[in-house]
């Protein structure tokens, strides 16, 4: 798996969102905040994405295009991410995860600091 560092160049690609829209990565006009998430119903991921969605206007004003990628099929994602203002991309075969060197680990989800937002039901 590749290891990407700041300033590395990636192969341009066009991804299809769960709403059948296309998104270019990298985007020739804006910075891309490419987020690799867990499964579609992940409560931590969805809390975080709602926090990003609350600040969406600020993100856009800063010239950033948010793109969230999940290793779930689009039909599983639509109930959870279908109303997001930014791009959500299904990658059930984890092709993009592999290409970008993203590895799955459960250790981060069980950290005590990761559990507080679940109890509060909100990530600030």
Structure notes:
The chain is an alpha/beta fold. It has a domain at 29-102: Glutaredoxin. Helices cover 32% and strands 20% of the residues. It has helices at residues 43-54, 56-61, 74-81, 95-99, 112-120; strands at residues 13-16, 22-25, 31-36, 64-70, 87-90. The chain has a three-stranded parallel beta sheet with strand order 3-4-5. The model has no long low-confidence stretch (mean pLDDT 86).
Helix-strand blueprint:
Blueprint: E1 13-16, E2 22-25, E3 31-36, H1 43-54, H2 56-61, E4 64-70, H3 74-81, E5 87-90, H4 95-99, H5 112-120
Please outline what is shown here.
The chain has 124 residues and is an alpha/beta fold. It is built from five helices and five strands. The strands form two sheets. It has a three-stranded parallel beta sheet with strand order 3-4-5. Strands 1-2 form a two-stranded antiparallel sheet.
Mean pLDDT: 86
* Cα distance spanning the termini: 33 Å
CATH homologous superfamily title of the domain at 29-102: Glutaredoxin
Uncertain segments are: none
Oligomer: single chain
- Main sheet specs: 3 strands, parallel
**Structural class of the helix and strand makeup?**
alpha/beta
Tally of strands: 5
User: Strand share of the residues?
Assistant: 15-25%
CATH topology of the domain at 29-102, anyone? Glutaredoxin
Highlighted features:
alpha/beta; 5 helices; globular; Glutaredoxin; three-stranded parallel sheet; 124 residues; single chain
């Amino acid at each position: 798996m590749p290891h990407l560092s700041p300033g590395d160049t990636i192969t341009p690609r066009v991804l299809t969102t769960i709403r059948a829209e296309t998104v270019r990565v990298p985007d020739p006009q804006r910075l891309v905040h490419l987020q690799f998430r867990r499964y579609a119903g992940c409560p931590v991921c969805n809390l975080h994405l709602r926090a990003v969605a609350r600040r969406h206007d600020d993100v856009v004003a800063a010239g950033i295009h948010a793109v969230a990628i999940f290793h779930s099929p689009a039909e599983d994602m639509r109930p959870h991410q279908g109303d997001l203002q930014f791009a959500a991309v299904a990658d059930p075969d984890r092709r993009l995860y592999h290409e970008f060197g993203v590895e799955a680990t459960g250790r981060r989800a069980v950290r005590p600091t990761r559990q507080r937002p679940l109890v509060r039901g909100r990530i600030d």
